[in-house]
């Protein structure tokens, strides 16, 4: 088995500051980007070394000749990345299998750095008069309010069973499972970043906790269609 890697120290421009419109890292020329990742454009899936969360980054060839991995917003936000942090990319080759691993170290400290990602669960039971969502609540980290009125309307429309695997808790657990289901935001509220009026039918979908966790195993999340494809 062989392994190659490179390290990129983050500057303000990488983090979307200094007037840049994207968050990205530049692949160093000495890593031979087309050989390291193949010929662009395409998406490269990385596994986070410390959390096993999958992240997709488009690999592109910029007009100025640079090779870049782009759309790092989710990753940098999850890691609380700041200037002078280091992103480590590993290419791990085992036989005909190739996988890419990503890690972030805080100013060179070789220890896992905790992320702020919460498991997508029901985090708020406050009933509100409208379907306004997205208001930040400070607990240990910022998280986003879930409106139970919108949740209930979603379940009334779709039914209390998983839209991905069709698991029905009442079939397995009887009365205690009746009506139990998670509700998944098709577009994560954390990406919206502001209050908005949620559409219970088009913005939400019921899923079981297992499928919900697997949907959020990747950034951006898997779609219901993709999860169904994985399940066969």
Automatic annotation (TrEMBL):
Residues 162-218 form the HNH domain. Gene3D superfamilies: 1.10.30.50. InterPro entries: HNH, HNH_nuc. One of its GO terms (molecular function) is endonuclease activity. Signal peptide: none annotated. Keywords: Endonuclease, Hydrolase, Nuclease. This is HNH endonuclease. It comes from Lutimonas vermicola.
